[in-house]
Amino acid sequence: MTAAPMTEDERLPQPAAADIDLVTVLHALGDPVRMRLLLSYADGAEHSCAPRDLGLEHLHKSTVSHHMRVLREAGVTATRVAGRNRFVSLRRTDLDARFPGLLDALLSAAPAPGPV
Amino acid sequence: MTAAPMTEDERLPQPAAADIDLVTVLHALGDPVRMRLLLSYADGAEHSCAPRDLGLEHLHKSTVSHHMRVLREAGVTATRVAGRNRFVSLRRTDLDARFPGLLDALLSAAPAPGPV
User: Fold this and answer.
1) HSE on the CB side for A83, CA within 13 Å?
2) Residues of A with Cβ-Cβ distance to B100 under 8 angstroms
3) pTM score, two decimals?
4) What are the pLDDT digits (tens) for A49-58?
5) Which of A65, A92, A93, B90 is the most exposed place for a label (fewest CB within 10 A)?
C-alpha cells in the first residue's frame, strides 16, 4: 500500500460545517482576545499567526496560538498550513449557512478593535 | 434622614442597558444550561426559578441559581423579587437596542430545547 500523496497545503482539523455548534461558537467568542481575532478576520483575508500582525504583540505567541485553536475547533476559523507558515481565515460561508444573520449581528455589535 | 420607602417588588442588581458588553453576553450564553434558560425565557414571560419549571430538574437548585446569576450580571435577564419569590425575564428590549439582530439570530440558530 502506497502512502497517499501529500498535498502541498493542508488544513488543520476543523468541524464539518453541519457540526458547528452554536454554544461552542458563543463560548469561543465570549473572550476579548478571541473577539479581537474575529474582528481581524472579518475582512475575509488570510492572516498570519504573528501576534504583531493581529494587534496582539503584548501576548505570548503560545497564548495567541491557544486562542486560535479554540476558534478553529469551534468552527469559526480555518487554518491552512503551507510549509512552516499557517494562515487563518474566517469560515464566513459556513457560519452564515449554519446560523443566518449571527455573524453580521456580532460584527455590527462588536466594539471597535482596541487593546485587549 | 428617613430611610427610603421600600417598594414591594425589587430588582436584583443588573447592568444598565448601555453597559451591556457583547463579549460578556457571549460568554454567558456559551454554556448549554444557560442557552437552555435563554430558550425558556424567549417567550417574554416571567419565569420562576424552580428548576422543574425550567426543564432543569436534574440540576441542583444552587447550580441553576449560579447560571441565572451569570445571565443577570451579563445583562441578559432581569430578576424581580416579590417577597420570597423571584421572577426572571429576558431583557429583550435592551438587548435588541444594544445589539440589533443578535437575539433573533441566536434564537433562530439555537437547537430545540432538549436535555442539557
Assistant:
1) 2
2) 105, 108-109
3) 0.89
4) 888 878 888 9
5) A93
